[in-house]
């Protein structure tokens, strides 16, 4: 079975929700955040300069993601297929 990749999505022109993110130990996922009021999951990856926000994610799914032994495997199985908005992260000075 061939691995397929989604078509690249453009950056959203709206402003992202201000959601605090926590660094996680993963080769793929850099940070995870969650806003329980809006049920929005925020994810950044170790590659790329983008923030992805997934609306309508239940708090249990966020808790499972944070507890997952492999964040990358969990993301691929449970989150990757969900609708999202993509935002450009600001450049960080070295």
Automatic annotation (TrEMBL):
<dbReference type="InterPro" id="IPR025309">
    <property type="entry name" value="KTSC_dom"/>
</dbReference>
<feature type="domain" description="KTSC">
    <location>
        <begin position="25"/>
        <end position="81"/>
    </location>
</feature>
<dbReference type="Pfam" id="PF13619">
    <property type="entry name" value="KTSC"/>
</dbReference>
<protein>
    <submittedName>
        <fullName>KTSC domain-containing protein</fullName>
    </submittedName>
</protein>
């Amino acid at each position: 079975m061939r691995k397929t990749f989604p078509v690249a999505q453009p950056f959203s022109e709206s402003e992202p929700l201000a959601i605090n993110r926590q660094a996680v130990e993963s080769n793929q996922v850099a940070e995870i955040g969650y806003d329980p009021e809006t049920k929005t999951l925020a994810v950044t990856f170790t590659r790329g300069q983008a923030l992805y926000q997934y609306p309508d994610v239940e708090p249990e799914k966020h808790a499972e993601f944070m507890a997952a032994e492999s964040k990358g495997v969990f993301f691929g199985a449970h989150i990757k297929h969900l609708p999202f908005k993509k935002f450009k992260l600001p450049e960080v000075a070295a």
